[in-house]
Every structure is written in C-alpha cells, then in structure tokens.
Amino acid sequence: MAKLPKTPAFWQKRGWKAWALLPLSKVYIAMMRLDQREQKPREVNIPVWCVGNVTVGGSGKTPLVCWLADWLQTQGVEAHIILRGFGGELSSDKPLRVNPTIHSHLEVGDEALLLARHAPTWICRDRVAATNAAETAGAQMVLLDDGLQHWRIEKDVSFLV
Q1: Is the pTM of this model over 0.85?
Q2: Among 89, 115, 117, 156, which one has the highest count of C-beta atoms within 10 angstroms of its own C-beta?
Q3: Which DSSP symbol is given to 4?
Q4: Do strands 48-52 and 157-160 pair parallel, antiparallel, or not at all (unpaired)?
Q5: Where are the alpha helices (DSSP H) in 48-126?
Q6: CA distance 22 to 29
C-alpha cells in the first residue's frame, strides 16, 4: 500500500515558509466559504450522523465510527457507513457497497475494508447518492466518516474528533 505523505514540519512552526504560504491560505478560506454558501444542504429521509475532524489524519475518526456502528447495532438500528473511499480505484460518484470478500484495499481503500467489518459500508464521492443507496438497501440511518467539510447533506448530529 502506498504511504500517505506526512504533514510538512513547517506547518507546525512559524518559519518563513509558513509565513510565505499565509496569503494562499486566505484565498483557500475564501474559496471554501464561497463553496459552502453556494451548496444548500439536502435533507434525506433517514438520520445522518457525521464523524469528522479539522486536522490532517490520525485523530481517531475511524475507531469512533466503528464503535458507533457496533453500538447502534446493539440498539437494534440498521446503520450503514458512508465514506469517500480515499485511495481506492473504484471511488466515484456512483455508490458502491464494499464487500470485503471480493474488494481489495487497492479498489476501495483500507479504511473502507475495516469499516465494512462493523456495518454495511458504501464508498462514493456523492454522499447524498450514497445515503439514498444505503436507504434503498435497508439502512435506518447513516454514519458519515470524515464528512464535516461536506455541505451537500443535512446532518442530524456531528461529532468533532
């Protein structure tokens, strides 16, 4: 599996490289806010719980999603997990239900395979389409993994990790 790049050390320090990138960060923030204003969140027919963070990786989102999926099952709730499928060749705008017996980490990403051990899991860049597919497949609610920056779907609960 390909190694993900590490966060550059200069992001953690206030050196000249960080200061040089400061104007670019202002442009990024402005574009993000414009994008957020233009995208109206869409309601779906089932509850949506979102687990996300505001840092780059390693904050514990995946273990929390696993725990929530397991806990919801003990409560009798059929929850499905939705994520982008980062690093997988099959990630697209069309929802794909992950099947650990036939899909590999190269196709759906290693995180999707791990989550599929806990609850039915879908990969898709379009989270609204994935939620609709999950509902059609019997989901009573969905757990969005890493969905805080995704504004196209109305969330009922958001967990910031």
Answers
A1: no
A2: 115
A3: P
A4: parallel
A5: 61-74, 105-108, 110-116
A6: 11
